[in-house]
Design brief:
Elements: H1 8-19, E1 25-35, E2 38-40, E3 43-46, E4 50-59, E5 62-71, E6 88-102, E7 105-115, E8 129-138, E9 144-152, E10 159-172, E11 175-187, E12 203-212, E13 215-217, E14 220-231, E15 248-264
Antiparallel strand pairs: 1-4, 1-15, 2-3, 4-5, 5-6, 6-7, 7-8, 8-9, 9-10, 10-11, 11-12, 12-14, 13-14, 14-15
Length: 267
């Protein structure tokens, strides 16, 4: 099994950057997510609080960055991406994507490389891999449908598909609650394809219902989020050493974001 950066907030940032690409401006940004657990595509890889920073640069519709998963404590006896290595950086990923808008359609194509070379136990360099991905969202509707798909071309050599919908509920004139629902679908990343397979079998892996919002605090954007996850795959049901067959998992966190325009990008 392996890990992937999949931060929904970054998708919004990248699309926003692409939408202003006509101005040919460059933007630098930094995100710091504080989550109650590290959950990727329904799989629990750290069952304790984690810090996940991401620094990125955007210009001409391209956005690239470096993301990390940091375990602030030694989580011995629990699910930990660092294994017995204790506190510290457990994963470093590099990513680049190109995003554009066409009418009500927002789309992007990207590539991510995942590295675990900082670990001697738990997830190690054996699990290093990379994949290509694409996503399209349709706006201008009461709800926003999105289709995301990724294909691992190195280790697992399989696909993961994620249809989702989101709805912005206006709780007050100044507060919007973003409600989301997604389903994970596995196509070739199951046991038997590779020793580092992500899931037990192909098909439905999990369903996730979420609620989030965001508000400004000076130069920062603050975005809390809460998830209720319904597990279907055998691997997504493993949420802790003492709970290896859980049908439901609750987790959440808060993301702090900052960005700054660097002016017109040179031709």
């Amino acid at each position: 099994m392996r890990i992937l950066r999949m931060a929904g907030g970054l998708s919004v940032v990248a699309l926003a950057a692409a939408g202003s690409a006509s101005a040919q401006t460059a933007t630098i940004g930094f995100d710091a997510a504080f989550n109650s657990a590290y959950v990727w595509r329904g799989l629990t890889y750290t069952n304790k609080p984690v810090l996940q920073p991401d620094v990125w640069l955007s210009a001409y519709g391209f956005t690239g960055g470096v993301w990390a998963n940091i375990e602030p404590g030694a989580y011995t006896g629990d699910i930990s991406e660092n294994g017995s290595d204790g506190a510290g950086i457990a994963e470093i990923d590099g990513w680049i994507e190109y995003a554009r808008s066409s009418g009500n359609a927002n789309w992007k194509l990207g590539w991510t490389i995942y590295t675990f070379d900082t670990n001697n136990s738990g997830f190690t360099a054996f699990y290093d891999t990379h994949e290509f991905y694409g996503q399209i969202s349709i706006g201008g509707l009461p709800i926003t449908p999105t289709l995301y798909a990724a294909y691992d071309v190195d280790k697992v050599k399989g696909a993961y598909i994620q249809p989702s919908v989101s709805y912005g509920w206006k709780a007050s004139p100044s507060l919007t609650i973003n409600l989301g629902a997604l389903a994970g679908i596995v196509a070739g990343q199951e046991v038997g394809t590779d020793p580092s397979a992500n899931f037990a079998k192909s098909g439905l892996s999990h369903v996730d219902l979420s609620a989030s919002t965001s508000f400004a605090a000076g130069p920062l954007s603050i975005a809390p989020a809460f998830h209720v996850q319904f597990n279907h795959d055998t691997f997504t049901k493993v949420v802790s050493p003492t709970k290896p067959d859980e049908s439901v998992k609750f987790w959440g966190g808060i993301t702090l974001s900052w960005s700054h325009g660097l002016g017109a990008a040179s031709e």
